[in-house]
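Look over both lines:
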Amino acid sequence: MPHAHVSKTIPHTLKVHRLAGSSAAWWLSELQVQRQQPLLILCESFEQAESCLGDLAFFSGKDGLHFFPSWDVMPYDFFSPQKELVGQRMQTLDALLHENVRFVVTTPQAVMQRVLPKELFQNALLDLKTEASLAEHELRRKFRMLGYVEVDTVEDRGEFCLRGTRLDIFPSNQSTPFRLELRGRDASGLQRISSIHPFDLRSQISEQTTLLSLRLLPASEVQLSPEQCDHALDELEQYREQLPDNQFSSTQHTIRNGQPFPGVESLAALYHKLDTVFDYLPPKTRVVLQEDAKLQQHATFFRDEVLREAEMSMAQGRLTLDPDLLFLGPADLESLLEEWPCVGVTSAHEVEAPPDPLAALRAGFQRLAGASSQSFSFQGNSSLREGFRAAKALSAVGNAMERLRTWQAERVPVVLAARSQTQADHFRELLFDLEVESRLLQDHFSGADSPPLPSSILPWAEFCAGTGWSHKLAKQWGWNPQTTGILPIVVGEVSSGFRLLDAENQVCFALVTEDEVFGKKTRQRRLQRVAMPGWSGSLDDLNEGDFVVHLDYGIGCYRGLQKIEAAGTQNEFMLLTFAREEKVYVPVSKHHLVQKYVHP
């Protein structure tokens, strides 16, 4: 399949230069406040998106902040994406639909995956409210249409159990399951919801918290209503000549069954024509392109991956839909972006710093409409520790501390950031030992059980623009960091700090993290289920007899796939055997708990 012509960079109406460290997130936070526009922020990779999310939360809080991730499976895979990721995507689409967003952070791979049609998604939303009447058969039909699977015991997202006067369900967009107690049954067979409580997965005991309503979002990115299944069967006819009779009949039966099955997303376009994330954006949305040249490169790489997987799927004789029905190409993405006002953001120094950086910063948001390029004078903090030998410091820490003392003596506004309360206390003690006085901000917020969010107490705009920050902080905190020279420490996670330079190239504001002073520490993380990698390919890369590692059970042997019926639904399971021929059946939907064992 030939590539359409695409430009080397994604088009933008404004390019903002020299935003180093986390200053890009700070600037975007101020842009959103000033313009009151939702921002769709495209980052080059998942890791960059995670950093951007954390930085935005640090500067502006988590309200209205959403992440739209890509799937964790290969295109045309036998597997479906993790339910947690699907739930996160559905949550973001719902927020966009109801214009309840300030920021959406995503990647080229994520926005190039086509999504549920906006109208179908809107009609699929289900609000369960106390005292509402329910019909059991209608409820089951609706849940299955939304991609929820009926089970004997709810253990994972996208599952429900309806038994007698109790309905357990784990919404795709929630981190905990919920129990609905039902009462009565009138002549027409309707029951009323008497209460809604979260419950504990391990003990299966309801919690005391009571909800008045519960919103259910789709648990699958394919809607399995009878109408959509009929549409899929009609669309399937055009592939009759491409598939062996037994495979065509098997696919027909699977679709007619109306149940979710692993890998159904690769057939989504049979069920309904797909939309894009851009169809969900509120009208005033502004798109932000972080390092746009890299974005275009990642978009091209993803397109190449989609085409390779499509060719492999066809070579294996599987039903393979045209990639354009399921994914955007780089040219499609470029065309869609041309319909929205775009801002390119980069740390590059392609443009000279303005002669008066502070004046440029203060006027920056007012000049956006007519400008095609804008430059500021932010600098990263890597040099705090680097080059300590050239600075004749005894160590990297010594070099960083000398900078802090200099700024402290010159009364430069400096804010220090620590990830947690414990680390902030440790940070303050270390600074004290090194003769730098600092103070935790939460010490001056009486009655607070936890440190206040940096976004709620720091006037970032005044800090960075140098407009009355000292007076405002003295009034808000009860002490003045400029006159006392005491450095404030805030509790909050930010990927890195930054410095703002003035017309004489001198530092006039600095945000410094503990890592930038003392160096990054190796952080020991407990292994989490969502963090365990699977193998990079599909089930075809795993053969019967291969050794595998299960997150909970350890090393075992893969014995193939088996179909098992439970609660009237047939599902595929991976059969694993362990010592003494103990068998474990792993639902294909939970393949991320298993990875192929590679001998060291």
Q: What stands out?
A: The chain has five domains: 1-122+271-377, 126-216, 227-259, 380-518, 529-596. Residues 76 and 562 are 21 Å apart (CA to CA). DSSP finds 20 helices and 26 strands in the chain.
